[in-house]
Delta(14)-sterol reductase LBR (Cinclus mexicanus), 612 residues
Amino acid sequence: MPSRKFADGEVVMGRWPGSVLYYEVQVTSYDDVAHLYTVKYKDGTELALKESDIRSQSSFKHRKSQSSSSSPSRRSNTRSRSRSRSPGRPAKGRRRSASQSREHKDDKKKTIQEASLALPVLLKPSENNTKRYNGEPETTEKNDTSCIILEQKLKPDLEIKRVLEQYSLRSRKDDKKKEEIYSEKKTFVAVKPVEKVPTKTKELEFGGRIGTFMLILFLPATVLYLLLMCKQDDPSLLNFPPLPALESLWEWRVFGIFLLWFFLQAVFYLLPIGKVVEGLPLSNGRKLEYRINGFYAFILTAAAIGVLLYFQFELHYLYDHFMQFAVSAAAFSLALSIYLYVRSLKAPEEELAPGGNSGYFIYDFFTGHELNPRIGSFDLKYFCELRPGLIGWVVINLAMLLAEMKIHNLSVPSLSMILVNSFQFLYVVDALWNEEAVLTTMDITHDGFGFMLAFGDLVWVPFVYSLQAFYLVGHPTTITWPVAAAITVLNCIGYYIFRSANSQKNNFRRNPADPKLANLKFIPTATGKGLLVTGWWGFVRHPNYLGDIIMALAWSLPCGFNHILPYFYVIYFICLLVHREARDEHHCKQKYGLAWERYCQRVPYRIFPYIY
């Protein structure tokens, strides 16, 4: 095993990823497995660097001393020459003026060289501008003409520089030394991004190993408890439901129907329809391709359901065996999680999730060890994120609507059931129509695919998010039209905030130079990305979460106020989003450093304006 070169606490020069610029950093730790140093820049940014990207400060001082235009030996030879004046030499006074002229030209040449080295950065606003990041004055307007003006000012000086270099009296040896010193700076514009390898996860979330182990047991128990409560005549919290017999929770026919549903959605996913887009760059710079056809899969599913109803298939079968379907989905998600963890043990280091590489079995099993597990071009995480669970949610709501009509002998569904189905139908259709936006979420870019996402996508979303519709079947609630109108307005407000905020974020991430976004201001960061400080993102830090919570409340209000059970979703969702916001805050502070602190000063409220 190679020994480490730099000690903890040592101040060295570290190269910024994606460039050849070196900055003063302090070594904080060293990973013996990945052979990476964790260094801290002066602005608080922490990055993992290879040993080849770190140099001692003395090496830079040594290089600087080599850049002298004349060596001591040359100066001594000049002093030892004869003082007699040859006929071709100018007068003494003229010699002094000529020397001063050369010094003046040298000074001017030096200034031009420094300016020319800075020019590529100034002429490319989209590149990583570390001067602005470190607190110097900056502009957030995209159509900035300062770069063009500077180029025009430097053009005559650059021409002088070219002439001076052509007729330089310096020796070729000195020119070669200077060329070696600046060779990296001259080529930094075309340099390839540094390949970053994920390091071991040091900061454990969700309560660490004990917390994740408890969640693996607690999440299925919570789903079982909620569904049993909805079946009771009095679903109050103090009225704990009796535990059912184990044999009543499992039926192979139900499990077969669930498998048929899962693989039907997989077939729709593989159909060569819809556009293919690239995701965000991974840690190694590679971009994965994704086929965007979720909305087409939804249309094909709706057609298949229509055919079943035409042939008088009783869709309320889902309601009658709802508990068994939930248990089947939980068993399948557990089996899928085991498969995902086993295959991740053979995955390359650069394909592991940054948050699920702790080395602890339980923690990595829960959070997901591999970031983007694929079977060929079939992306398992991306498929489960929107297809079986989200589309299944709408199918379950429809089954509850039909069950309500059959059980209560209604010719039309109740107004409460119509509102719940309509609101949640709109939410699912919006997610599938804007499917490409999911590629920028934390689930895709940061979290691995393990039990947390597998259980959440296949069990929690379809069987807990449909809790209001399931509740209304056994506990019908009557609401008036004015109340229904008020709830509809509330849902529309939440949806507008949610969709417009997400659209602003996704469009800005995809193409910050889009003329349609010219009115948006942002804080530049050292990563090359910008933090929006206008629009919804200048109102609160997570306006999409605010819209989500408002919609969740609107989904629960049609159930009335007799019991708190239908409000479990909005209570859970607030806790979920507050926790996720804390995770976002931690990751962004590490990623953006000083720029994130400036953003928090500019936008002080996290989710709820003037409250939190």
About this structure: The CA atoms of residues 248 and 324 lie 8 Å apart.
